[in-house]
Amino acid sequence: MSTKKIYIVVILIILTISGFLIYMYPFVKGIIEDIPKNQVKRDSIEKGVFIINKDSLNNLIGYWAESTEDDVSFSFNKEGVIKYFGYDDGYIYNYVVKEDVLIIKEGNHIISKYDIVKINSDSLNLKTETGEQIKYYKRKVENVKN
After folding, report:
1. CA 146 from chain center: how many Å?
2. E strand or H helix at 109, and its extent?
3. Calpha distance 8→14 (Å, rounded)
4. How far apart are CA 39 and CA 57, in angstroms?
5. What's CA 72's distance to the chain center, in Å?
6. Mind listing the pLDDT tens digit for each residue in 93-118?
7. Which long-range contacts (CB under 8 A, 24 or more apart) does 101-110 make?
8. How far is Cα 71 from Cα 57, in angstroms, rounded to an integer?
9. What does the pLDDT look like over 53-70, one tens digit per residue?
10. From the CB of residue 65, how many other CB atoms can be counted at a distance below 10 Å?
């Protein structure tokens, strides 16, 4: 083979590999983003900073109100559904928790995001995208008014 043909073959191989990598980038990026950056951070509390773990996420399930006396404002279920009360039919959205961020969605559209500052068996502290701190209290089922 001549040198010119070898260069052409090498260039074609490089272009083929580059095309494949460009094609695969969205898939690889999605896989990488799902891998916890620091597994220790996700499973423990370090330096006084609240970190979400599987046990604390179980506390999210239930009914929540803005005070211990108020009617229930919303509820989370195990299937990833949040229902807001106090409206004619209530509003129903989906939710996901990624690391320490609560994401409320309707289909693929993100409605809002909240940093989970703290969660335990009876209270939920959130921080809005504008920096406002909100505290909710867990309520018993009999406090629900549809």
Report:
1. 27
2. strand 109-119
3. 10
4. 16
5. 23
6. 888 888 788 999 988 899 999 999 98
7. 102/126
8. 23
9. 666 778 889 999 998 888
10. 18
User: Which tokens hold the place of 112?
Assistant: 């809002």
33 and 98 Cβ atoms separated by less than 8 Å: no
Asked whether the beta carbons of 143 and 71 are under 8 A apart, the reply is yes
User: pLDDT category, 29, cuts 50, 70, 90?
Assistant: low
Structure letter (DSSP) for residue 44: S
Beta-strand relationship, 81-84 and 62-65: unpaired
* Helix, strand, coil share (%) of the chain residues, nearest 5: 30, 35, 35
The whole-model pTM stands at 0.59
Distance CA 19, CA 81 (A): 40
User: How far apart are the C-alpha atoms of 21 and 26, rounded to whole Å?
Assistant: 10
CB 52 within 8 A of CB 43: no
Dist. CA 98–CA 34, nearest whole Å: 9
